[in-house]
Design goal:
This protein is mainly β and 119 residues long. The protein is 0% helix and 56% strand. The protein contains no helices and eleven strands. The N and C termini lie far apart (39 Å).
Length: 119
């Protein structure tokens, strides 16, 4: 099992910035990738950004490219999401997720952190 704990959400004005953190613990040696997803009320869950643990390749959803940056701290087994130029449409609950080697999907999920962007 892998436990994920997010932090850093909050209320920010449009154009502002926030930084989300996600700390992983437990059986993390099998981690293949970690990422961020979000879900707004009435909408489907959306991929935001991902980090392949081996090799360090990053991936971004089209709606956040150029504004959000995902990074990691290997020693802390943590990932971060720096969100700049926030828009009202970025308002959502943001979830950290972890995918194991050999798994087809992200299996472990954090509890989520609310990000609200006021216009």
């Amino acid at each position: 099992q892998v436990q994920l704990v997010e932090s850093g959400g909050g209320l920010v004005q449009a154009g502002g910035s926030l930084r989300l953190s996600c700390a992983a613990s437990g059986r993390t040696l099998s981690t293949y990738a970690m990422g961020w997803f979000r879900q707004a009320p009435g909408k489907e869950r959306e991929f935001v950004a991902g980090f392949r643990w081996v090799g360090g390749r990053t991936y971004y959803g089209d709606s956040v490219k150029g504004r959000f940056t995902i990074s990691r701290d290997n020693a802390k087994m943590a990932i971060y999401l720096q969100m700049n130029s926030l828009k009202s449409e970025d308002t959502a609950v943001y979830y950290c997720a972890s995918r194991e080697v050999g798994a087809q999907d992200y299996r472990y999920w954090g509890q989520g952190t609310q990000v609200t962007v006021s216009s």
